[in-house]
């Protein structure tokens, strides 16, 4: 939000009367009010006291973190919290309740009416990282025996203003999904048209047990803004909207980035020192063990290094560049596996592509390192030969490892982002030292 607009909004929220705010509220986005609250947390209660319940509900739903949502709700006066919760969607309340301890959760649920409480408790039974945990039970279902007129009358009288209206879902008496119909088809059809005549029966559904990453990929594939969630008997349970999927995509991307760096998927910039320490130290210990393995390779060539000390300066370049190349390949492969872009039909082609990239990169970087090594060694061309072939071989190994490691982990049902980096780094370090010092030992008489 631009500074002028921000200052005007802040002035209105802090010094304006309830009537003045009410007049302007329809033209103010809840996210802008939340920005003012974030910038001026000391005046949160004052701001919320002047806002209507539905606006407060929208502001809470704009907050990203469930703990922050609950903290914001607690800033509302106790006698108004029930009204705010009544304006919130059941899935948002379930997300908040799922992060609370038992006492806080019971206090929250006690403020809901009977229907909302039942819906929230039902949603809490689902794994939060599945379609069931993502869905909302607020959707429009039409009985299969209805006509267009019946449907229009129902929409006029029984539909809440916050209920998604992109699609209407047609179900039978048992709640089994029969198809989907859009509003345009209803408006364009005669009143006596049976709803099944304009229903699209080829509806794509999501099982409530599907993992959230699979759900996100399904939305991406079909470019839908909303999809129905069903049980194993095709009974309609709820719907997932595109805004929930955008959050999933952001969370999955953040998780992959964190895991590849050896950090917990839950860590954020505002995590406490203790949380960050617990998140990072396990993988640092694992990396220490792999570093010991690389050191063991170097120890086997102590004799060579002691005779040509200048080798120690060059070998770190070989392993470092190999690690960089491996990380590049690994990043592309992990992302491809996450997006389901790699399958048995194209896996071999991608492998040879990575192999060729490793060869070409190894040749280019190898030549540059060889020239630098010759200069560093006072003009001895054998330093260049050793550096070139060690770099070429290690770059090839790096790209092969960057492909094979995540693919194998995927086959073993282990998240490739979780452990790939450690294995690839181990390969590039150990093989880099082995190739460079092995070749140096082979040509030792020419290097001395």
Task: Give a concise summary.
The protein has 448 residues and is mainly α. It has 22 helices and 6 strands. The chain folds into 3 domains: 123 residues, MgtE N-terminal domain-like (MgtE N-terminal fold); 100 residues, CBS-domain (Roll), CATH 3.10.580; 175 residues, SLC41 divalent cation transporters, integral membrane domain (Tetracycline Repressor, domain 2, Orthogonal Bundle), CATH 1.10.357.20.
How is this structure best described in words?
The chain is mainly alpha-helical and 448 residues long. It has three domains: 3-125, Alpha Horseshoe (MgtE N-terminal fold), CATH 1.25.60.10; 141-240, CBS-domain (Roll); 273-447, Tetracycline Repressor, domain 2 (Orthogonal Bundle). It has helices at 3-15, 18-24, 30-39, 44-49, 53-62, 66-74, 78-87, 90-97, 102-109, 114-124, 131-134, 148-158, 183-187, 212-222, 242-260, 273-299, 302-307, 311-338, 347-376, 381-411, 416-442, 444-447; strands spanning 141-143, 167-171, 177-182, 206-207, 226-230, 236-241. It has a three-stranded mixed sheet with strand order 1-2-3. A hairpin with a 5-residue loop joins strand 5 (226-230) and strand 6 (236-241). Helix 18 (311-338) runs antiparallel to helix 19 and helix 18 packs parallel to helix 20.
Strand fraction: 5-15%
Distance between the termini: 66 Å
How many helices? The count is: 22
| CATH topology-level name of the largest domain | Tetracycline Repressor, domain 2
Q: Structural class, from helix and strand content?
A: mainly alpha
- Second-tier CATH architecture of the largest domain: Orthogonal Bundle
Order of helices and strands: HHHHHHHHHHHEHEEHEHEEHHHHHHHH
Number of strands: 6
Subunit structure: Homodimer.
Domain CBS: 198-255
Membrane topology: Multi-pass membrane protein
Protein name: Magnesium transporter MgtE
